[in-house]
Design a protein that fits this description.
The protein has 592 residues and is an alpha+beta fold. It folds into two domains: 277 residues, Beta-galactosidase, Chain A, domain 5, CATH 2.70.98.90; 195 residues, no CATH class. The strands form three sheets. Strands 6, 8, 9, 10, 11, 13, 14, 16, 17 and 20 form a ten-stranded antiparallel beta sheet that branches. A hairpin with a 4-residue loop joins β2 and β3. The chain starts with 12 loop residues before the first helix and ends with a helix. The N terminus is likely disordered.
């Protein structure tokens, strides 16, 4: 050993003896610390043997279940500076587990899912739907990967080769676990499956014996997202202490940490969702994930130079204890299916279906529509038409009431014109204009005229329209539901036939419906403007909504034509004709 020189030594025997004693004292202290650490490690040493035994037994179990299982590369002795044996697979392998609802393919690289097929749903090509967005997952992470705030550790956890408890094909109910350890890092992930869409996950990650905050993630949207509106339907869903909330994709902040308690939390698009239901809601932590993906403007004919930016949402769930114990629902946003899944507090997941403020109308409409589909006619398009007919028959009394109100308004119109002429010389700001309004109101009250009577059908029809819009745009049952030439009632009419029907039907509605007191020029403008505006809106809306609106308008036109032939209708036309002749006479006299 080379001699250690003291830089403070100036020579002389006295100084040298003192330095030697100091050196011996430090050397003795070093030996004391060294043997103390060896004794402390010997007290902690029993842990590596079980870990090694467990990894070996898992490897043997995997080899017995599948000849293709790769052998585990476990070192016989601990790594230098590590308290656990290395556990890692020699190569990549897959494990497929399925039931009647799904077929999930795990890879031991990252112990994550690379395919999640939903057997009862199809994609745009008619093939079984893969719930995983493969393009986004390859960039931002696969389902059941682990999220950590340390990007380097996150990448290491996603690329490591875990030892799987089984490979090949498995049938639910079953369990599957993955283990990995190296350099003091120890990871254990286990999953259990039953006959439902719900799986249970358990995750534990430690580094040199200390827990690591690693969260279970669904990071990259859903496989049915291909167009910008489909990405725009993404949202972050969660429920805290029984109160649910949803954050639209524009407001989701990537990497934002939300503290619990969470009864359930996750992400969804228009028709599918991935919701975590933590075993212990009180200490649950949620991280919102958001990334930008360039997608083709026309998915059917993609062009490299014609792309647009889309937001891909994800979520990760963890706990303050550093371990994760949670269930995960990954499947359709069907009210019946979501109603069968309950959080720890007993609430179900039906609030994941976003009807908004119109839920009080949309949900009963859907249950009524589904009743017709299940018990009357097994086609969603014909069920919509049947429901439309029934609703319009139910609203017929309001149409009659509107016509009666219109007739009364026509009868008193000459007196109202006289009152207006009486106060025509006063400015609009003159207080005496208020007297004119009071006289008009008194006249209407005396004759039993309700100035809002003509608005009653519209006040009923508009909520129904918005209720239908929220229902038809959110219920998964109408996704890929066909009717005559329409391949998908949840998508716009590919031939734009229904929007044209909407335009024509609205024009006929304006033409045949009497409008007392409305200026003829204004009436003509409304007859063309409103159909054009609504036709343009329906051009890109789901064809199911256009089907309802066009059918409802044509039924209304037929009802109005019949009512126009009654004595009440004839009297209205006679009064309107006299008013029109009188107006023309005034115009002619004014020109003279």
């Amino acid at each position: 050993m080379p001699e250690i020189q003291n830089p403070n030594q100036q020579g002389g025997t006295g100084g040298g003896g003192q330095d030697m004693r100091t050196t011996l004292a430090f050397f003795g202290l070093f030996l004391l610390v060294f043997f103390g650490l060896q004794y402390y490690r010997s007290k902690k040493a029993p842990e590596p043997a079980p870990a090694q035994t467990q990894s070996q037994s898992q490897s043997q179990s995997a080899q017995q279940q599948s000849a293709a299982a790769p052998p585990a590369a476990a070192s016989p002795a601990p790594d230098a500076g590590s308290a656990v044996a290395a556990v890692a697979a020699a190569g990549e392998s897959t494990t497929v587990i399925e039931n009647e609802l799904y077929k999930i393919t795990f890879t031991n690289r990252g112990a994550q899912v690379k395919s999640w097929i939903l057997k009862k749903y199809t994609d745009e090509d008619g093939k079984p739907l893969d719930l995983i967005h493969q393009t986004a997952a390859a960039k931002f992470g696969y389902p059941l990967s682990l999220f950590t705030y340390d990007a380097g550790l996150r990448s290491r956890l996603a690329s490591a080769l875990y030892v799987a408890s089984a490979t090949g094909n498995l049938s639910a109910p079953n369990t599957l676990s993955f283990d990995y350890s190296a350099g003091g890092l120890l990871v254990h992930k286990s999953f259990s499956f039953d006959s439902s869409y719900v799986i249970h996950a358990s995750v534990k990650v430690t580094q040199n014996g200390a827990p690591v905050s690693a969260m279970l993630a669904w990071p990259s949207g859903f496989g049915d997202q291909s167009t910008l509106p489909q990405y725009a339907g993404g949202m972050l869903d969660y429920s805290q202490s029984g109160k649910d909330d949803q954050i639209a994709f524009k407001k989701v902040v990537g990497g934002d940490t939300l503290r619990g308690p969470f009864d359930w939390a996750g992400v969804s698009d228009l028709y599918f969702t991935a919701i975590f239901l933590p075993d212990s809601p009180s200490d649950a932590t949620l991280v919102s994930l958001s990334n930008t993906l360039q997608i083709p403007k026309n998915p059917k004919k993609p062009e490299p130079n014609q792309t647009e930016s889309a937001s891909v949402l994800g979520a990760a769930i963890g706990s303050g204890a550093g371990t994760v114990e949670t269930r995960l629902f990954a499947g359709p946003k069907s009210l019946d299916v979501l109603g069968s899944v309950h959080a720890a507090d007993g609430t179900n997941l039906q609030k994941v279906v976003s009807f908004g403020w119109w839920g009080i109308i949309s949900k009963p409409l859907f249950y009524l529509l589904r009743f017709f589909h299940d018990h009357v006619i097994a086609n969603w398009g014909w069920a919509i038409l049947l429901l439309t007919v029934i609703l319009n028959i139910a609203m017929l009394p309001t149409r009659i009431k509107m016509m009666q109100s219109s007739l009364k308004m026509q009868r008193i119109q000459p007196e109202m014109d006289q009152i207006k002429a009486k106060y025509a010389k006063f400015k609009a700001t003159d207080p005496r204009k208020q007297e004119m309004q009071q006289e008009i109101f008194a006249l209407q009250k005396r004759e039993g005229v309700n100035m809002f009577g003509g608005c009653v059908p519209m006040l009923i029809q508009w909520p129904l329209l918005f209720g239908f819009y929220r229902m038809l745009g959110n219920v998964i049952e109408l996704r890929h539901a066909h009717w005559l030439w329409l391949p998908d009632l949840a998508s716009p009419d590919p031939w734009h036939i229904l929007p044209i029907f909407v335009i024509v039907s609205m024009f006929l509605t304006q033409y045949f419906t009497p409008s007392p007191g409305v200026d003829p020029a204004q009436q003509k403008m409304m007859a063309f403007t409103m159909p054009a505006v609504f036709g343009f809106m329906m051009w890109n809306f789901g064809s199911g909504l256009s089907l309802y609106w066009a059918c409802s308008n044509f039924i209304g036109v037929a009802q109005q034509m019949i009512m126009n032939r009654t004595g009440m209708g004839r009297e209205i036309r006679e009064i309107q004709l006299k008013r029109a002749q009188k107006q023309r006479g005034k115009v002619i006299n004014a020109r003279r």
